[in-house]
Design a protein that fits this description.
With about 375 residues, the protein is an alpha+beta fold. It contains 16 helices and twelve strands. The protein is about 40% helix and about 15% strand. A hairpin with a 4-residue loop joins strand 7 and strand 8.
Length: about 375
């Protein structure tokens, strides 16, 4: 592990106040990272030191034990909130290919490690301070409270879902009772082959616990006119989500948006990307809510500014811009933001953000987005978001 040159005063403060992750027994070649950076573990690695207090995302991928340069397994991660000078101790469990933090509950063991920390220091890699500003900008609305509420009960965010059969059908008789085809008969079609596969479900405790985004955007008993209105302006659905999941702190919905983005961008969880898209679309297509929740939407602009700055440009072509998702969603947002009931500060910030995206990605939010590919436009003048 290596880090860029750090200001001596910053290094001294982090050395004195920073937290320490002592990670023992991690196999050589394991890909391990914290926040926005990762490394391949070497033979002398024992953990990470000088970690700024606050929320962090520790992530790792096991590797083929027979060959440290071999295949890398799916990524596992967990959110941690570290206190000043805290020592968090974990041992690698080779059977589970995971870190076991139970040793951190042993006060005597932690005290022993603290007493020998100076001897351990040469084997601890410094926190990659150069990514700190970027990490804070991506998680400034994400508290440990929100992260704990959203992450799986297992405490682990996994790139691949841990799935098990919905029903344990070990015998042909069991399959017949469920009206499923026998395994020993030839398949006549792809559908028949798929039907022979057992129905799978995610193992309990391993699923991300995102807020439920209402599928019905209008109130019960709504008239056709109300249904049309609520389809164009999804504020009713957004207010339901805020009341159910973020009633006390509406801005926590931005923390959820950041949680989903980090789980996707750093943790490689595709389901988190799908939730990010749906939650973003709901926020951007809620006109009345935009007039009511000024601070929420000022925060949304800042969140998107930093998030879109971190996605590789070619990624927009491959996924984000597929079917014009992002351009059409933001087009609705910018259209609503110039409405008569929108706060003037929010309107101006939105206009600057729109100009910034037009310049950076060459997106034309004034064009008709019926075509399949994003529309681009040349913008010669420099536009600042500040």
């Amino acid at each position: 592990m290596a880090s860029v040159d750090m200001d001596p005063d910053v290094a001294r403060r982090l050395f004195e106040e920073g937290a320490t992750l002592v990670l023992l027994g991690v196999p050589q070649g394991t890909e391990l990272g914290i926040d926005y950076k990762s490394w391949r573990v070497g033979p002398l690695f024992r953990g990470v030191k000088m970690i700024p207090p606050g929320l962090h995302f520790l992530h790792y991928c096991s590797t083929n034990a027979a060959n440290c340069g071999g295949e890398i397994g799916p990524k596992t991660g967990l959110f941690l909130t570290l206190k000043p000078r805290e020592i968090l101790l974990a041992n690698w469990n080779p059977k589970e290919e995971d870190l076991d933090f139970s040793a951190s509950q042993n006060v005597e063991e932690v005290s022993r490690v603290r007493a020998t920390l100076r001897d351990l220091d040469p084997f601890l890699g410094p926190y990659p301070y150069e990514v700190m500003r970027k990490w804070v900008s991506l998680t400034d609305h994400l508290s440990q409270e929100v992260a704990t509420a959203l992450q799986p009960l297992s405490g682990r965010v996994c790139a691949f879902s841990d799935v098990i059969p919905e029903l344990q059908l070990k015998h042909t008789k069991d399959r017949e009772e469920q009206n499923l085809p026998r395994n020993d008969t030839a398949c006549q079609s792809m559908k028949e082959g798929l039907d022979k596969l057992p129905r799978m479900k995610q193992r309990e405790g391993t699923e991300l616990r995102f807020s439920d985004i209402p599928r019905q955007t209008y109130p019960p008993g709504a008239t056709p006119a109300q249904i049309t209105k609520c389809s164009l302006d999804q504020s009713y659905a957004l207010e339901n989500l805020l009341e159910k999941h973020h009633q006390l702190k509406p801005l926590n919905v931005l923390g959820e948006l950041q949680f989903a983005f980090v789980c996707f961008l750093v943790g490689n969880v595709y389901d988190a990307f799908e939730h990010w898209k749906r939650l973003l679309a709901l926020l951007c297509r809620s006109e009345e809510a935009m007039q009511k929740h000024k601070d929420l939407y000022l925060g949304l602009i800042a969140v998107l500014y930093h998030q879109l700055g971190e996605i590789p440009p070619d990624f927009f072509v491959d996924i984000v811009s597929q079917n014009n998702f992002l351009t059409s969603t933001l087009q609705d947002f910018f259209q609503f933001s110039i409405g008569p009931g929108v706060d003037s500060t929010l309107r101006k910030r939105s206009e600057k953000f729109k100009a910034h995206l037009t310049k950076k990605f060459l997106w034309d939010f004034e064009a008709d987005l019926d075509d399949c590919d994003p529309v681009v436009v040349e913008l010669p003048d420099d536009v600042a978001l500040e």
